[in-house]
Design goal:
globular; 10 helices
């Protein structure tokens, strides 16, 4: 496993799309952060209210959604490039267990998630500080539950990596995999809300399917982390939902990666 990780890290750092995705992520973060600061400075009352809620971190948390999308794209491109260039077959013929090969890709993706998380924090806060200066210093104050929010965010970024790798391992074509990922993500984003409306309005049941979908949980983490302490019941729900989707997609991805010819 250690040798596979070294090889995979070497490969991904040599790819152009790693640096392209990184630059796009920084560009999005800077644009959103600077725009938010400048808009707030034009409307002081709104900005002062925003300031009291650690506004810079609020924008930073919002930028975490950029990581999820670009990290999934990176994971798909990385795995599919291995199939298209024939390097995956060369690795498999060297006797490495296929589950180790797959998990190596996952751990590389998880490492990229850590890097992108730190990159987003740095680019968002630095650009906000440059744009706004020190005119409103409490705008940059640390949220009370920063560590918990970052850990939960990283946990769900691992889910996004696992889902992207599962799709890539099933389809094995980068274009098709990305298209399927985008369509699936779009459906998962709004279909549970439609089902919730049907359950509440037609069946008169007090139950929410969307609360147990990883997309909603990830969005709640980035929103609730800035305004209040996250309730214990919600933390348990996030861990259970994220753990379920992570385990399910890893099992499916590893199974089909082992069974299908490379």
């Amino acid at each position: 496993m250690g040798r596979l990780l070294c090889v995979d890290f070497y490969k991904i750092f040599r790819t152009k799309f790693f640096y392209v995705v990184s630059l796009i992520l920084v560009g999005f973060n800077v644009l959103i952060s600077v725009t938010s600061v400048l808009a707030g400075l034009r409307n002081y009352e709104k900005f002062a209210f925003f300031e009291s809620k650690s506004g810079a971190w609020s924008v930073t948390y919002a930028n975490f959604s950029n990581i999820a999308l670009l990290l999934a794209i990176l994971s798909v491109l990385f795995l599919c490039s291995e199939f298209s260039h024939g390097t995956m077959k060369n690795i498999a013929t060297k006797g490495f267990p296929r589950e180790f090969i797959y998990l190596s890709k996952f751990f590389v993706g998880l490492s990229c998630a850590v890097f992108y998380l730190l990159l987003t924090i740095a680019s968002s806060l630095i650009s906000s500080l440059i744009a706004g200066g020190n005119r409103l210093p409490s705008y940059y104050s640390l949220p009370s539950n920063l560590a918990l929010t970052l850990l939960l965010t990283l946990f769900f970024l691992a889910v996004y990596v696992s889902i992207a790798l599962m799709i890539a391992s099933l389809v094995r074509k980068s274009g098709n995999s990305l298209a399927i990922y985008v369509v699936a993500s779009t459906l998962i984003s709004f279909l549970p809300d439609l089902l919730d409306n049907f359950i509440r309005n037609t069946l008169n049941w007090d139950f929410s399917i969307s609360s147990y979908v990883y997309v909603r949980c990830f969005n709640e983490i980035t929103q609730m982390g800035i305004v209040s302490n996250i309730p214990s019941a919600d933390i348990v729900r996030y861990v259970c939902v994220g753990g379920f989707f992570l385990a399910l997609t890893l099992i499916i991805g590893i199974y089909y990666f082992r069974e299908r010819d490379i």
